[in-house]
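Retry 2 of 3 after timeout on previous attempt. Resubmitting structure tokens to design endpoint.
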């Protein structure tokens, strides 16, 4: 389906809320470090979390360490690296995927990016991403390189908006939602996942399977989500209404 209707505020009653970060809570930027975080965002999220009895989590493609470089995440459950990292609100870490040796693959990606001069390598604890936002004409070349590297290394490629990420098999944002919903604080609630990217589709499907729904951010497109908010500003307004 292609969701078009905005989610009503009543949807949050008895819900657990899972929020993507880039493209959902903050606008996308030319590079991951160039984003601007609204200074009021951390306090807004904490107010929403209080209303929901603590049932709020950020589920991002960024590593947890990178997220915390941009925003105070204390007291909020966080999943990073597309489901490969998960930390509860009390600071307890839950392993979602076995570690994998990415060193050789990292070196190949760095060399490939250096040879083209226009690609950005984003290092994460358990994965490595290659951004081509500044060189969209290189998309096919990047896709072919990453696909071949994944085949040689036994890893998998996660596609996003002008980025490809090499990562271990077996964990995604849907796994993060399922893991958090098994925790006592979240158990029994109706999961809602808000996200903009193709990487959020696994989480939309997981939320639906658990009796909840997905909320797509951005233009209409085929999606497993049921509801839609047009942009980051609309997400912020919806959250302010919830708070």
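Retry 2 succeeded. Sequence:
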């Amino acid at each position: 389906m292609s969701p078009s209707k905005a989610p009503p505020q009543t949807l949050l009653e008895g819900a657990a809320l899972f929020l993507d970060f880039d493209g959902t809570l903050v606008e996308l930027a030319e590079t991951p470090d160039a984003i601007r975080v609204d200074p009021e965002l951390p306090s807004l999220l904490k107010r929403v979390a209080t209303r929901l009895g603590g049932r709020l989590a950020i589920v991002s493609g960024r590593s947890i360490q990178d997220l915390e470089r941009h925003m105070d995440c204390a007291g909020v459950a966080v999943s990073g690296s597309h489901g490969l990292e998960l930390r509860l609100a009390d600071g307890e870490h839950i392993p979602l995927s076995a570690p994998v040796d990415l060193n050789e693959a990292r070196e190949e990606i760095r060399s490939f990016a250096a040879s083209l001069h226009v690609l950005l390598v984003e290092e994460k604890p358990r994965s490595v991403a290659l951004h081509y936002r500044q060189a969209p004409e290189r998309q096919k070349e990047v896709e072919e390189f990453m696909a071949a590297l994944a085949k040689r290394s036994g890893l998998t490629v996660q596609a996003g908006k002008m980025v490809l990420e090499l990562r271990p098999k077996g964990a995604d944002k849907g796994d993060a939602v399922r893991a958090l919903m098994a925790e006592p604080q979240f158990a029994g609630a109706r999961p809602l996942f808000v996200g903009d990217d193709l990487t959020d589709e696994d989480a939309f499907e997981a939320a639906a399977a658990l009796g909840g729904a997905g909320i797509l951010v951005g233009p209409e497109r085929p999606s497993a989500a049921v509801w839609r908010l047009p942009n980051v500003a609309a997400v912020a307004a919806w959250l302010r209404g919830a708070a």
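Attempt log closed. The longest strand covers residues 190-195.
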